[in-house]
Amino acid sequence: MKGGTMITRLNYCLSLVLYLFFTLPARSQDKYPQHYFINPLDIPISLAGTFGEIRSNHFHTGLDIRTDSREGLPVHAAAAGYVCRINVSPYGYGHALYIRHPNGFVTVYGHLSRYYAQIAAYVKNKQYELQKFAVDLYPKPDEFTVNKGDTVAFSGSTGGAEGPHLHFEIRDDKTEDPLNPFLFDYSVADGIAPVIAGISFYPLNDSSDVNGSHNPVYMKTVIKANGYALSCTGGEVEACGCVGIGIRTYDLARGAENRNGPYSEVLTDGTDTLYYQRMDRLSFASIRYVNGHVDYAAFKKMHETFEHSFLQDNDKLDIYRKLTNRGIIRFSKGVVHHLKYAVSDFQGNCSTMQFDVRSAAAPASIFHDTVKYRGTINWKKAFDYRYRGMAIHIPAGAVFGNLRFNCSAEADSQRTICPVYHVLNEYIPLNTSYTLKLAIPASLPDSLLRRAVVVQMEGSKISAVGGVYDSGSITAHPKTFGNFSVMLDLTRPIIKPVNIYKDKDMSRTAAIELQISDNLSGIAAYNAYIDGRWILMEFNPKKDIISYTFDNHVTSGRHHLKVVVADNVGNTNIYEADFTR
């Protein structure tokens, strides 16, 4: 009996996939070369992250390939071509390499510990020439040609990596759009179906409700022999009016604990497909629209990712393959809607969930918002508002739907030099930044005003937003709503030597390390000199460490080190020490 229900479940998934395959634009491996690209590592592919996985403010644009918690594994060119870009950054991909191939695709390799010898020498020469650690280089096509399988770098955990792994991408060379590497015949051993962990319901107007509530309703799931089901008693939900549905789902792989993103999600109502999304291609131009695709408030408050199975007004993502009424369901006239989710990974493992939602004859109540708002943001138009020394400009398309605007101010605290302004709240998503201009007291001397910085205040947490001072006000460009004010940063950055001190013998030490930090506005720049000559110091922001690895720029003998660190409002600190080598 148990086997029979599993066969029924698999048959449903197979039937649905075949239907969508033949009635919609196919995922079309025909468009992408098969067996052209090889595994960039010498070990079997095991994933720490999948293409299209939802991260903070973006979708993941490649595969995170495990390196068995090790660094220094050889990274090979996935196919013949030439190195077209080398990017070194303390953030993001860290040490990254881009290879252009003659078939119209570019492969990307990120979080590298170091480059292959000739490439590393080229990068280092450029860094010294530009006197910068972070560089973005574009070698000529004939400078670094590679064959399939050539070692081009070594794996690591640089940039934003939380642990050792290789970030690997395949991009369309013409559009620079990231593509799902699985479309190119990459595969992993995977027999585990995605998990459906929760379902959410969203009343979309004042006359809509779910189980009598005008607020989002979240429900957990349980797994049964024939698929997932709602854990609530009876498994039935009652709704009225226009309602959207969301899902919390993730994929697992054998032998791994991390939660990856699934490949496709389908929501059907009886025989009708309401919503179908598939992770084949992404665009950097629209990647922040992920903030409207997810339940942003749940993401921020509960640290859980519920994806909307319906579209917001301002949704320009290109992951949707079929939509009926933008995925929105109208519940009326006592009809029972037989809804079903099917969630699959690329290997074809599929999980399903069926649940019924009964249409209420009438809403339990009509929602009446008693808050007095100061205006309405039309998502299609720019919005401007002035209030007690604050001016705000929200560009067209910055929010995901029409929004009632509100703001307030309270007296400045002992730490701020202007009122604290409350602009909506931090749980409302934005697609792009907006302009916030705050007036500050003209009584302060110009020398102090130049040290002013806009800050965002959420509870006890204070973070710098930045800002430019001009003619009695400071202008910043926040990417979130929340509470804002202005503070003065009058403190120099901190420089703490890690392994060097005055007159130390560094002969048996491989590198000089110092820790740098700033209390408010953040580090803007650092430079280091030995005997008056600039030296290359790498920056690791995860540890706030800058380090210089001894090389031919420093010979044996006595030397003088000078390190200069500046923050974003111009405060500067200097550390100096003599040492021998």
Identify the notable features of this structure and list them briefly:
581 residues; mainly beta; Glucose Permease (Domain IIA); Chondroitinase Ac, Chain A, domain 3; 4 domains; twelve-stranded mixed β-sheet; eleven-stranded antiparallel β-sheet; 46 strands; 9% helix; flat
Tell me what the structure shows:
With 581 residues, the chain is mainly beta. It folds into 4 domains: 32-184, Glucose Permease (Domain IIA), CATH 2.70.70.10; 195-359, no CATH class; 375-488, Chondroitinase Ac, Chain A, domain 3 (Sandwich), CATH 2.60.220.30; 494-580, Immunoglobulin-like (Sandwich), CATH 2.60.40. The chain has 5 helices and 46 strands. The strands form 8 sheets. Strands 14, 15, 16, 17, 18, 19, 20, 21, 22, 23, 24 and 25 form a 12-stranded mixed β-sheet that branches. Strands 1, 4, 5, 6, 7, 8, 9, 10, 11, 12 and 13 form an 11-stranded antiparallel β-sheet that branches. Strands 27-28-32-36-35 form a 5-stranded antiparallel β-sheet, with no helix packed on it. A hairpin with a 2-residue loop joins β33 (452-458) and β34. Mean pLDDT is 92; it is low at 1-8.
Q: What is the general shape?
A: flat
Put simply, the count of helices is 5
Provide the low-confidence segments as ranges.
Answer: 1-8
How many strands? 46
Largest sheet: 12 strands, mixed
Percentage of helical residues? Answer: under 10%
Report strand %. 35-45%
Rounded mean pLDDT score: 92
Structural class: mainly beta
**Integer-rounded radius of gyration:** 28 Å
Number of domains: 4
End-to-end Cα distance, whole Å, is 76 Å
